[in-house]
């Protein structure tokens, strides 16, 4: 038995994984690892180098030249791509769509999964993504599959963008979400799916606080089982 604790949170785009995981990490004093940000940094590298997501040979070559690492500033995750902090450059829809497209490639996944496993072996982490419970941390102490209906997820995203003053269409956002779900759930390598031993939480009718409290409660129960 290891002496670190790992919590895995998987789920589709826009389910609120990062908000929830960040809050739980703060409560438990765990390190929050946003693995989507790592795929986004890789995607940025490919976009900058004009590489097509469908060109497997080019992707493999370019992935070899992309060094993605994480660092923490005041507890906030920073993503470093070949020495450059790209945290502020990876949140666009363009990069998100590219991240989903390039994450189908085994070479990209193997490189990032290795780093994720290594991080989780050293520290108490709460890690979110698509394949954490199924592939990266199969022995996690607690696994959550966090989802919400595509309408609810689209509405949340729409409100976020509106708040930032960005023009957007609710229908287009929902279509993007449905497309991304399909791509992430139907790829060959480590598709998004609920691990057999994961707890399903549908946040469509739950507040963030309710979800956070439920996860903290589930973790407490797991701690009792482990001690
Ligand atoms: O969570 P996100 O939207 O930042 O993730 C962007 C894309 O990266 C997502 O659509 C699929 C891919 N991804 C993945 O394949 N595996 C992960 N563990 C995390 C993200």
TrEMBL record:
Residues holding ATP: 11-19
Enzyme Commission number: 2.7.4.25
Source taxonomy: Bacteria, Bacillati, Bacillota, Clostridia, Eubacteriales
Catalytically driven reaction(s): dCMP + ATP = dCDP + ADP; CMP + ATP = CDP + ADP
Keyword entries, A-Z: ATP-binding, Cytoplasm, Kinase, Nucleotide-binding, Transferase
Chief subcellular location: cytoplasm
UniProt protein name: Cytidylate kinase
Source species of the chain: Clostridium boliviensis
Single annotated GO MF: kinase activity
Domain Cytidylate kinase: 7-220
Subcellular location: Cytoplasm
Family: Belongs to the cytidylate kinase family. Type 1 subfamily.
């Amino acid at each position: 038995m290891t002496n670190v604790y790992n919590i895995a949170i998987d789920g589709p785009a826009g389910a609120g994984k990062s908000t929830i995981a960040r809050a739980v990490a703060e409560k438990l004093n765990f390190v929050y690892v946003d693995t989507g940000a790592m795929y986004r940094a890789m995607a940025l590298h490919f976009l900058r180098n004009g590489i097509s997501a469908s060109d497997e040979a080019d992707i493999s070559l370019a992935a070899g030249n992309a060094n993605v690492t994480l660092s923490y500033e005041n507890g906030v995750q920073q993503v470093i791509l070949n020495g450059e902090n790209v945290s502020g450059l990876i949140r666009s829809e363009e990069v998100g769509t590219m991240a989903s497209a390039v994450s189908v490639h085994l070479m990209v996944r193997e490189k990032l999964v290795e780093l994720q496993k290594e991080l989780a072996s050293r520290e108490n982490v709460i890690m979110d993504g698509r394949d954490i419970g199924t592939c990266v941390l199969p022995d996690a102490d607690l696994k959550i599959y966090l989802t919400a209906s595509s309408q609810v997820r689209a509405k949340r995203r729409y409100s976020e963008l509106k708040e930032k003053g960005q023009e957007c269409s609710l229908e287009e956002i929902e279509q993007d979400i449905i497309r991304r779900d399909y791509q992430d759930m139907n790829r060959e390598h480590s598709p998004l799916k609920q691990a057999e031993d994961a707890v399903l939480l549908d946040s469509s009718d739950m507040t963030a606080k309710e979800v956070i409290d439920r996860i903290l409660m589930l973790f407490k129960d797991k701690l009792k089982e482990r001690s």
